[in-house]
Amino acid sequence: MLIPVILSGGAGTRLWPVSREGRPKPFMKLADGESLLLKTYLRAAHVGYGGELVTVTNRDYFFMSRDELARARLCDGHQGVFLLEPVGRNTAPAVAMAALYVANKHGRDAKLLVLAADHLIKNEQSFDKAVTDAVGLAAQDYLVTFGVVPDSPETGFGYIEAGQAIGGGRAVKGFVEKPSEDKAREYLLDDDFLWNSGMFCFKAGVFLDELSAHAPEVLKACEACWSEMREKSSLTDTMFEMPAETFNAVPDISVDYAVMERSARVAVVPVDIGWSDIGSWSAIRDMAEPDDENNRAIGEVIFVDSINSYVQSEDRLVAAVGIDNLLIIDTSDALLVANADRAQDVKQVVARLKAQNHGALKLHPTVTRPWGTYTVLEEGQRFKIKRIEVKPGASLSLQMHHHRSEHWIVVSGMAKVINGNQEIFVATNESTYIPAGHKHRLENPGIMDLVMIEVQIGEYLGEDDIVRFLDIYGRCQ
Amino acid sequence: MLIPVILSGGAGTRLWPVSREGRPKPFMKLADGESLLLKTYLRAAHVGYGGELVTVTNRDYFFMSRDELARARLCDGHQGVFLLEPVGRNTAPAVAMAALYVANKHGRDAKLLVLAADHLIKNEQSFDKAVTDAVGLAAQDYLVTFGVVPDSPETGFGYIEAGQAIGGGRAVKGFVEKPSEDKAREYLLDDDFLWNSGMFCFKAGVFLDELSAHAPEVLKACEACWSEMREKSSLTDTMFEMPAETFNAVPDISVDYAVMERSARVAVVPVDIGWSDIGSWSAIRDMAEPDDENNRAIGEVIFVDSINSYVQSEDRLVAAVGIDNLLIIDTSDALLVANADRAQDVKQVVARLKAQNHGALKLHPTVTRPWGTYTVLEEGQRFKIKRIEVKPGASLSLQMHHHRSEHWIVVSGMAKVINGNQEIFVATNESTYIPAGHKHRLENPGIMDLVMIEVQIGEYLGEDDIVRFLDIYGRCQ
């Protein structure tokens, strides 16, 4: 039994403005239209043989994560299980909660394959082979890490120093902190040094034992969470919400510090699998095909006498004149222009936005909700226009606004609308009007997406002018 | 009698993406919200003392030009007169038509002050003084040019070589083509060399006589236009449309080549008036105040370790990381990122767009119509959303669409709507529905702007699905 456990917590501040709090790095779509999380689900389903996929993520990302799992269209028998954190507490508590779940449901000998939700692996075949090797070592009670064979003198990663061969892998001599550039160049020529990829494989019981030995306070705090959670849930549930107060008290520590660097039972499987942590826009750039001037473009771009540059545009025309070595990332509400050598410093923009509590830090113009999405198309004086997309079978809460009226025009699909005391169907090319103070509810009763244009009119148009009476997603409080 | 004549014909391709065919350089708004044309009207009204302002422009820009004149809110007594060209034929025919109009209406001794619609003059007082000098020379039957005292070794302008002093100016020894950089550096140190600004002052009759002497074929062709035009109009009209076929036959030649460089009666008034032809984005940049890192920003911009750069953004957040010497011009549907040393080459982008017959060459998302504006907010599958603004008292044509229905929602003001056989009023926060095949008309009967959201739904949503039945702006054919 091998249960893939996907840790989905990366903020990806270096990938602003595409990665933001409201839709962070795991949900970022690559040029092929697939998100990193979706790719991770596909990869995990391919190697897992327990039929279960466990995701540990913040509860804010539950519905979005479930949507990505649905988009992966895995064949029957793959059951998604979600362990939801109220706050981030680094990787040790996340892995510990997953290990407690797996040990309790499937037994202490069931193995976990811990994967990050925001990495890319190009060579899936080599990855499958490496997982097989890791499972073999895990069966011998090793805590197995995956060590990526370096192809550049990377100073942004920790390294693993490998020792003698054991089974399909090697023993671990030690872990090395992010090195200097000189050291990184040395390591590049030395077969014993590997990048610490943050992927692991081990039996649930072995991990919990080692955690108990080396970081007992973490295990104890996680067990308290587990007990409290179990009081409200059954092991057959697919969604577990960690109790906020108890989980808040769990130490913030990485699995490397808590266990891997301290345990004597660690092994490493060296891998050459086309791995990237997609750490910055430079990594995204490198995935696109360069032209003769070493320019790369996603979207409609005109290069005039420009070289070595990357432009990514969602829906606008971009013209570049006489530029060199730039990254230009264009989204509908924010634009980034950066020297490619300074890709790491994009996080400074996010820090600045954070200091200003700026809206562009958190939300995209398109906001994802459990029932679908809405996109603000324009805000003017006393009016706001949204495009609302509701998934088949989904419905918004029964709600009321004090300060705004809403005009709804269905442009695609069919809407079922409760408007005051009436229940009506609104078909494509029909409209309805919701006066301020009227209780209303929007539902998509059909089997295709409902697309609707909403024109709000009123003195105050903030999202907080909403009274929810009934909500299938538990958002009434 | 001094009649300002404003030549409004510049395409301003170096100022793409803000300047485009649909709204070219004279209509470009500066940071203070005023267009170059509006500033020219204010300047002209200040010095003119005939009560008339003559604009020579393409007929496509008539309504937009008239709007700018209205925005200038000139005090009573200033009458706008528009001479409309079907095609551009350079400056000699434009000035000749204006001279024919002025000579016929106000007599051959009335003076013209010829100004470009897309230049900027910072020092209005010095300009007023220079005009007084020029008028004095024009009274002595000189063709007066304004020669700008150079403050840089400019290779993009022609130069005027000044001779002995006469009246408030100097005689002209000759005109010099755009010089080499070495020559331009020499001229900068020599008081006799001045930039040819393209502004002039002369009596209508003197100009026509000199045109007859030096370019009789131009005068003859223009006189043919004038006669044909007069058959359909009265001298008290304020809008004269040049006959297309006859005007097409007028030679394409500049006023410098046709008259100034050939005439013996040319004088120059040297001026130091803070003049700029706003020839590229560098000129726009120079008008903004630099910060400590020599960055300049219009709009919301975050600079991280960036220097010497200019960012202009309409409504999006722009972040710049580690950049130097860039121009970043952000509009709602197109973005320009250019090395500041290559500002002249922006015209190459326009040339490329022209070769592709690209939409971003011609129109802004906001399109100006005689009755107001419309802005496309979103185009989706089978739907399109527009914000429509109708000026007080204005109305759209009585029209019909075969392939689309329209939902209209009034968000501000009052609409009078003809919908099939009905005539109704639609107030703020009310809506109406125009089915495909229904004749309809939209009017703003009020005294404040009407703002409306239109949601179009149908198989085909092109602007050419329109049958016009009645149009007060003469667009039925």
Automatic annotation (TrEMBL), chains A, B:
The keyword Nucleotide-binding applies. PANTHER family: MANNOSE-1-PHOSPHATE GUANYLYLTRANSFERASE. It catalyses: alpha-D-mannose 1-phosphate + GTP + H(+) = GDP-alpha-D-mannose + diphosphate; D-mannose 6-phosphate = D-fructose 6-phosphate. InterPro entries: GMPP_N (IPR049577), Man1P_GuaTrfase/Man6P_Isoase (IPR006375), Man6P_isomerase-2_C (IPR001538), ManC/GMP-like_b-helix (IPR054566), Mannose-6P_isomerase_type2 (IPR051161), NTP_transferase_dom (IPR005835), Nucleotide-diphossugar_trans (IPR029044), RmlC-like_jellyroll (IPR014710). GO terms for biological process: alginic acid biosynthetic process; GDP-mannose biosynthetic process. Monomer. GO terms for molecular function: GTP binding; mannose-1-phosphate guanylyltransferase (GTP) activity; mannose-6-phosphate isomerase activity. Belongs to the mannose-6-phosphate isomerase type 2 family. Its cofactor is Co(2+). Pathway: Nucleotide-sugar biosynthesis; GDP-alpha-D-mannose biosynthesis; GDP-alpha-D-mannose from alpha-D-mannose 1-phosphate (GTP route): step 1/1; Nucleotide-sugar biosynthesis; GDP-alpha-D-mannose biosynthesis; alpha-D-mannose 1-phosphate from D-fructose 6-phosphate: step 1/2. Residues 4-289 form the Nucleotidyl transferase domain. Produces a precursor for alginate polymerization. The alginate layer provides a protective barrier against host immune defenses and antibiotics. Its EC number is 2.7.7.13, 5.3.1.8. The keyword Transferase applies. Residues 358-470 form the Mannose-6-phosphate isomerase type II C-terminal domain. It comes from Ectopseudomonas chengduensis. Keywords: Alginate biosynthesis, Cobalt, GTP-binding, Isomerase, Multifunctional enzyme, Nucleotide-binding, Nucleotidyltransferase, Transferase. This is Alginate biosynthesis protein AlgA. Residues 299-353 form the MannoseP isomerase/GMP-like beta-helix domain. Pfam families: ManC_GMP_beta-helix, MannoseP_isomer, NTP_transferase.
